[in-house]
Amino acid sequence: MKDLSLVMKMMLKEKKDIFLSIFFGFLAGITAVSLFAASGYLISQAAFAPPIYTLMVLVASVKLLGISSAVSRYGERYFSHRGTFTILKNIRLKVYDRIEPLANRILQKYRSGDILARVVGDVESLQHFFLRVFYPPVVLAVVFIATVFFTMYLSVGVALTMIAGMAVVLLVFPSVFYLFQRKTAASMRERRGALSSAFTDYLYGFRELTIFQQAETKKQQLDQDMHHYEAMKAKENRQLAMREAMVIFFSFLVAVIVLVQAGFYVAEGNLAGTLLAVMFMIAITVFEDTPSMAVLPAHLEESKASSKRLIEVWDNETPSDTAEHELEADVPIQFDFKDVSIQYPNEKKAAVQHASFQIHPGENIAIVGPSGSGKSTLMQAMLTFAPIQSGQIDVNGKALSTLVPDSLWRQMNVSLQHNHFFYGSMYENLRFANNEAGEKACREALKKIQLSHFSLEDQVLEKGSNLSGGEKQRLALARLFLRDASVWLLDEPTSSLDAITEQDIMDEIEKATKYQTVVTIRHRLTGLENMDKIIVMNHGEIVEQGTYRELMKNEKGYFKAMKELENQQLAF
């Protein structure tokens, strides 16, 4: 039941609706049995021409039971569906609460399309657990027990036959069907996740696929995957229909056996003839809802697989609720890397190995090195986004893993290599960093990063697709000028800009961060002379660190070799 722990916990929160659903389901079931039993008895009694008042009482009872059955059935549907939708809402909120703090780490392990399939498809599948798995057998069993007690009063032999038939329907059929269902359910979930991921890749990469003339090939592959999934779904539906037909046939067979058995008892004089139709109608009605047992294994396995796929997303992660310390506001922040190694999931080699250094409040730090050397990973670690394998990062003397991330992020200004822009106006994208920023402050921020030719009303398309690479970088930096922060983390903030514009913007950043801590990742080595510390990385390791002068004095140093090579390239 561990796989179903998520949906079970959410169900327990809706005990009232669950109880009312079962109560009205029982009333609906028992009144339906009583209605058909009374109808059979009415038909049998009418054949003997009884007094009119007898028929009137029976007809009135049938009408009352019919009305009661309809009202009870409405109550059952109302409370069961209300409970289901509330459970589904709680599951969605629970999944979001667990995934949101871990989003960056989760997206390093799973494709975005697969996450979408889990958050949407798997959560949606869990709606069937209460309506199709938990609720039907409970109501069916309770109604059947009450019916059997009444039937035993009339005929013990018929009651035992019904018990045997119901045992097969409630236990044997679901168990056998479940064994077959387990083989197909897992592959269906995996196929749906793979299809969602493939479609997401096709959607996001459509421009590149078109340029390289691979869009049609990718589309054909998607069509094949979709047809394969549809074929699997159709096969599953045929299997469910066959199982349902088997249960219906068996239920009708039990009713026929009851009719034959009751007829034998009537012939033997052990049962009144007027009860023959009653027995048959009871057997027909009490087995009326048994077809739900045919689909129960499918929905049970689907619910287990869906719940398991959701739980495994965050199962081995360390959520933020384990954090116990709030970082004090307006207190200078110091980072201390102690032999830190970082390795991403499914990667054979560590991205960073044995990194040790300190960042003191107010320092201006540059992290340099070739592409893939681990520079961005160090910054991701400072943001709690990278998976630390060994070592520890301390912030003001406390382990980073014990800090509430929000208390750290509130004091940070961050510009990553890839920044997100929302569909909307320039003003809305700027105020994303500070909801209290006014139009004047936003215009000033645009002026500082040389985007004053844009008005605040100008539209920004999804992901900033109508902006150039340099404009995206400058817009991301403009956000930072609208927000007070004691630490600025800049990952290649000006890599898409020309040298003159880059220098002007870096001058503006220097003015704005005169008393702040600044960590900048750079490829170009110009403008590093005044840095308090330069950290040089290569192949995931810190090979050098020190001031510009200290590094340039090292004749065999890696930094000096890179600087001389850059100077030679600039000379040409």
Map the helices and strands:
Blueprint: H1 5-12, H2 15-46, H3 52-99, H4 103-109, H5 112-125, H6 127-154, H7 156-204, H8 206-211, H9 215-268, H10 276-286, H11 292-314, E1 335-342, E2 352-359, E3 364-368, H12 375-382, E4 388-395, E5 398-399, H13 405-409, E6 412-415, E7 424-425, H14 426-430, H15 439-448, E8 459-460, H16 469-480, E9 487-491, H17 499-512, E10 517-522, E11 533-538, E12 541-546, H18 548-553, H19 558-571
Parallel strand pairs: 3-10, 3-11, 6-9, 9-10
Antiparallel strand pairs: 1-2, 1-4, 4-5, 7-8, 11-12
Helix pairs in contact: 1-3, 2-3, 2-6, 2-10, 3-6, 5-7, 5-11, 6-7, 6-11, 7-9, 7-11, 9-10, 9-11, 15-16
Report on the structure:
The protein is an alpha/beta fold and 572 residues long. The chain has 2 domains: 2-315, ABC transporter type 1, transmembrane domain (ABC transporter transmembrane region fold); 335-411 and 485-571, P-loop containing nucleotide triphosphate hydrolases (Rossmann fold). The chain contains 19 helices and 12 strands. Strands 6-9-10-3-11-12 form a 6-stranded mixed beta sheet, sandwiched between helices. A 4-stranded antiparallel beta sheet has the order 2-1-4-5, covered by helices on one side. Helix 6 (127-154) packs antiparallel against helix 11 (292-314).
Beginning-to-end CA distance, first to last residue: 69 Å
Question: How many beta strands in the DSSP annotation?
Answer: 12
* Radius of gyration based on Cα positions: 35 Å
The low-confidence runs, each spanning 5 or more residues with pLDDT under 50, are none
CATH topology of the largest domain: ABC transporter transmembrane region fold
Q: Please state the structural category.
A: alpha/beta
Q: If strands are numbered along the chain, what order do they take across the biggest sheet?
A: 6-9-10-3-11-12
Q: What's the CATH first level of the largest domain?
A: Mainly Alpha
**In the residues, how many domains can be counted?**
2
- The average pLDDT is 84
Largest sheet: 6 strands, mixed
Instruction: Tell me the CATH superfamily of the largest domain.
Output: ABC transporter type 1, transmembrane domain
What portion of residues belong to β-strands?
Answer: 5-15%
Q: What percent of residues adopt helix (DSSP H or I)?
A: 55-70%
State the CATH architecture of the largest domain. Answer: Up-down Bundle
